[in-house]
Amino acid sequence: MSAPATQGTVVLGTHILDAAGHDWATIASTRPLPVPIAPRRTARQTWTVCVDAWRVPPGMHMETRDITVTNAPYRAPSPTPDPPPSGAGRLS
């Protein structure tokens, strides 16, 4: 007899694409697996994926194309700093 899934992590790969469909970048984000999941059952979940506005310039769009599920416990990512504003670090 199988045991239910009681922990896990979902990794979403969101691709930044230009108008012609060329892939410029892939941003990974993680979410906790919606547990418990009984043996031989499925679970449906919808997540909102956000990326910094500077990563998606005008004329480009994003698509989440890659989804991976692991049985590793979910660990919330540490926040990443915003990029420096335009012109930061310049000497007058």
Average pLDDT level: 86
Span of the ends, CA to CA: 71 Å
Radius of gyration: 18 Å
Percentage of residues in DSSP E strands: 25-35%
- Tally of contiguous helical segments: 0
Query: What is the H/E order?
Result: EEE
Helix content: under 10%
Strand order of the largest sheet: 2-1-3
- The count of DSSP E runs of length 2 or more, i.e. the number of strands, is 3
Unreliable spans are 88-92
Task: Give the class from helix and strand content and strand pairing.
Answer: mainly beta
- Describe the main β-sheet briefly: 3 strands, antiparallel
Q: What shape does the CA trace take?
A: elongated
Task: Give the topology.
Layout: E1 9-17, E2 23-32, E3 61-70
Antiparallel strand pairs: 1-2, 1-3
Structural commentary:
With 92 residues, this protein is mainly beta. The chain is 0% helix and 32% strand. The chain is built from no helices and 3 strands. It has strands at 9-17, 23-32, 61-70. It has a 3-stranded antiparallel β-sheet, with no helix packed on it. A hairpin with a 5-residue loop joins β1 and β2 (23-32). The radius of gyration is 18 Å and the shape is elongated. It starts with 8 loop residues before the first strand and ends in a 22-residue tail after the last strand. Residues 88-92 have low confidence and may be disordered.
